[in-house]
UniProtKB/TrEMBL annotation:
SMART domains: POLIIIAc. CDD domains: PHP_HisPPase_AMP. It comes from the Bacteria. Coiled coil: none annotated. It comes from Actinoallomurus liliacearum. This is PHP domain-containing protein. InterPro entries: PHP_dom (IPR004013), PHP_domain (IPR052018), Pol/His_phosphatase_N (IPR003141), Pol/histidinol_Pase-like (IPR016195). PANTHER family: EXONUCLEASE, POLYMERASE_HISTIDINOL PHOSPHATASE N-TERMINAL DOMAIN-CONTAINING PROTEIN. Residues 3-67 form the Polymerase/histidinol phosphatase N-terminal domain. It holds the Pfam family PHP.
Length: 280
């Protein structure tokens, strides 16, 4: 049984529509896929409609948070999407994303680049604009050779010349909101040092103490040493560990199914969810 619990569509910063993500996951041999777009559930209906017979979709979301002044991503699974408090935070984060994107485009203009808001809107389509869309605009405009080069201090990396900070939920508060909505919170890629997502054992233990259910250990950005350490830490904290591709379509070379979650961890996740059930 192949279970991939972290993927993105063009509803947030992936490059393919939700239906195509589901079809590609099926072609890659996935039996269970979680669609976890950033701060939105807008892609779920299309993904459900595209499900082939025998495949399961886990409704999820990757929630933008902050811990100790740093960005933290929290995977939320099988929560009630209509729960008012969490829905309100999703809207606030989404609205701020658009404001932030405009601010970065303005800064890029002052730096002399030909990137315009119209370019970013065309790349973004119907989704909420984010840094990956601006990075793609920088590539299209010939400012940088690839998306990775956009995420540096030269351009839109954290603290960079065109970087604009954004609203994000306090991570402890976010764990509580996901639980209150009947969902299951899992810490995303906590050792992804290349992208600046590195959290100490004490920080993870603090989140476990307020309701964190699991840790994403098997992730493409994690070394084997990272994975082994996270599994040991999770065992000590009585958390389950997940594995996932964190696929973003062409931006990550179509890697759906590259990392997977064990059936035992998946069952542990399902046992804690009260807000929703998988599809079908």
């Amino acid at each position: 049984m192949r279970i991939d619990l972290h993927s993105h569509s063009s509803v947030s910063d992936g490059t393919e529509p939700p239906a195509d993500v589901v079809r590609r996951a099926h072609a890659a041999g996935a039996d269970v896929l979680a669609l976890t777009d950033h701060d939105t559930v807008a892609g779920h209906p299309e993904a459900v409609r595209a499900l082939p017979p025998g495949m399961t979709l886990v409704r999820g979301m990757e929630l933008s948070c902050r811990l100790g002044g740093r960005s933290l991503h929290l995977l939320a699974y099988l929560f009630d999407p209509d729960e008012p408090a969490l829905a309100a935070e999703r809207r606030r984060i989404r609205d701020d994303r658009a404001h932030r994107a405009r601010g970065m485009v303005e800064r890029l203009g002052r730096l002399g680049t030909p990137v315009t808001w119209e370019m970013v809107q065309r790349i973004t389509g119907d989704s909420v604009p984010g840094r990956p869309h601006i990075a793609r605009a920088l590539v299209e405009a010939g400012v940088v050779p690839n998306v990775e080069e956009a995420f540096t201090r030269e351009w839109i990396g954290a603290g960079g010349r065109a970087y604009v900070d954004r609203y994000a939920l306090d991570a402890v508060t976010a764990v509580g909101l996901v639980r209150e909505a009947g969902g299951v919170p899992v810490l995303a890629h906590p050792r992804a040092s290349r992208r600046g997502y590195v959290f100490t054992d004490d920080e993870i233990a603090r989140l476990a103490g307020v309701g964190l259910a699991g840790v994403e250990a098997d992730h493409p950005d994690h070394t084997e040493a990272d994975r082994a350490h996270l599994r040991g830490l999770a065992a000590d904290l009585r958390l389950f560990t997940t594995g996932a591709s964190d696929d973003h379509g062409t931006l990550t070379a179509h890697r759906l199914g590259a990392e997977t979650t064990t059936p035992e961890a998946y069952e542990a996740l399902l046992s804690e969810a009260t807000g929703a059930t998988p599809e079908p």
